[in-house]
DNA sequence: AAGGCGTGGGC
DNA sequence: TGCCCAAGCCT
């Protein structure tokens, strides 16, 4: 089918956005000029990948306060970058942003979309978002919001993402006519606040021309994406203390919780396994206590976490991949939510464990240099 | 190219 | 409680 002209169809979005936009710290006041701080846009875009605005706001403010320029970020250490990202999730973004800042600090900003696309962490969407919002180039940034808005307006059945090239070509005249930065942000803002998965069409400036609304198909367009719900597995998560130091797994280079410090952990033994009965032996735990468990949800895993504190009378050499850590440094280490949650529990009194603790398994594995598990 | 990668909010 | 989703990217 033939679509109407993008500039005509989307024209009401420009005045709507000028009158309804949220004030966000990375947004330029003047939407018709080049952005005064492309670095701010870069930081915000990386933080906003798969993350809601409300979650990002405090992180963004702290980040820009600490590293106000791309050069400042380039000079930061990996550990402090991860610490500043702590709790935000998808930590690879922090490493990619750090790497991207180093490149930009050394080589300057790329002048076009292809150059931006080559910066670590910038995919099709983010590179175009930067080109449009920071540099006023008529590049179409299609994120989940834009895909949803355009799919509904045009009445596209099925997943709109495979039609990205087609949609970008169609969108280009409207970007030039309405302003690249303005239209890019208007599309996303409309998707985030009005044309949400559950839409509020009463407040929509383009409801009069929306194919999905006309067809009463906003519930079907775009279609929801199927997701697998993995089974839950159970783990002990152990704060092991000896001679006033804590045993921690050092950051891994890849995989779940890469770049972050973790407490030792081990799966709960199968019911009836011998491990639970294994003697503590020479480890001589002076104190053993537990806190209530919780369910830790990741994208592709669910863990039932049983937090535990073990104080030993004597230490032992940290196995490969582990390190004994001074209490004063504990708070400086970047951790994921699971591990920071146990760190926060430490000052609180625990109780006697309700489940049999496989101390032999856990400590034996550690003493033999078992690989750190996430 | 399908799956891995975190966390919190809304309903 | 459980399920869906969120300004995606990388391999």
Helix and strand content put the structural class at alpha+beta
N-end to C-end Cα span: 50 Å
Radius of gyration: 25 Å
Binned, the helix content reads 40-55%
CATH architecture of the largest domain: Orthogonal Bundle
Ranges with pLDDT <50 over ≥5 residues? Answer: 275-281
CATH H level, superfamily name of the largest domain = Hypothetical protein, domain 2
**Number of helical runs?**
16
CATH topology of the largest domain: Endonuclease III, domain 1
Please state roughly what percent of the residues sit in beta strands, choosing from under 5%, 5-15%, 15-25%, 25-35%, 35-45% or over 45%.
Answer: 5-15%
CATH class of the largest domain: Mainly Alpha
Count all strands and give the number: 7
Shape: elongated
Q: In total, how many domains does the architecture comprise?
A: 2
Mean pLDDT metric: 92
The sequence of SSEs as H and E is HHHHHHHHHHHHHEEEEEEEHHH
Q: How is the main sheet built?
A: 7 strands, mixed
């Amino acid at each position: 089918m033939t679509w109407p002209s993008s500039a005509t169809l989307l024209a009401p979005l420009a005045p709507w956005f000028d009158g309804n936009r949220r004030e966000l710290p990375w947004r330029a006041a003047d939407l018709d000029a080049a952005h005064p701080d492309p670095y701010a846009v870069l930081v915000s875009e990386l933080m906003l990948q798969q993350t809601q605005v409300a979650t990002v706001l405090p992180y963004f403010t702290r980040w820009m306060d600490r590293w106000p320029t791309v050069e400042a970020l380039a000079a930061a250490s990996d550990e402090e970058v991860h610490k500043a990202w702590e709790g935000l999730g998808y930590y690879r973004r922090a490493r990619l942003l750090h790497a991207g800042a180093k490149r930009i600090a050394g080589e300057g900003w790329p002048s076009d979309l292809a150059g931006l696309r080559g910066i670590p962490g910038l995919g099709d969407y983010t590179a175009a978002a930067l080109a449009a919002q920071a540099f006023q180039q008529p590049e179409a940034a299609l994120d989940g919001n834009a895909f949803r808005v355009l799919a509904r307006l045009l009445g596209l059945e099925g997943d709109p993402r495979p039609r990205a090239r087609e949609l970008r070509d169609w969108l280009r005249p409207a970007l030039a006519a309405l302003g690249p930065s303005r239209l890019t942000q208007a599309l996303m803002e409309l998707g985030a606040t009005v044309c949400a998965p559950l839409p509020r069409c009463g407040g929509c400036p383009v409801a009069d021309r929306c194919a999905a609304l006309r067809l009463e198909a906003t519930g079907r367009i775009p279609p929801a994406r199927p997701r697998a719900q993995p089974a839950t597995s159970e783990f002990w998560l152990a704060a092991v203390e000896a001679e006033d130091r804590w045993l921690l797994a050092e950051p891994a280079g890849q995989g779940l919780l890469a770049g972050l410090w973790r407490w030792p952990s081990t799966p709960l033994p199968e019911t009836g396994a011998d491990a639970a009965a294994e003697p503590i032996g020479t480890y001589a735990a002076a104190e053993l206590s537990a806190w209530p468990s919780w369910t830790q949800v990741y994208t592709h895993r669910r863990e039932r976490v049983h937090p535990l504190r073990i104080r030993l009378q004597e230490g032992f050499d940290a196995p490969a991949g582990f390190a004994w850590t001074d209490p004063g440094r504990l708070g400086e280490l970047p951790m994921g939510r699971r591990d920071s949650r146990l760190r926060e529990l430490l000052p609180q009194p625990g109780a006697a464990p309700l489940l049999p603790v496989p101390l032999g398994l856990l400590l034996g594995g550690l003493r033999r240099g078992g690989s750190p598990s996430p």
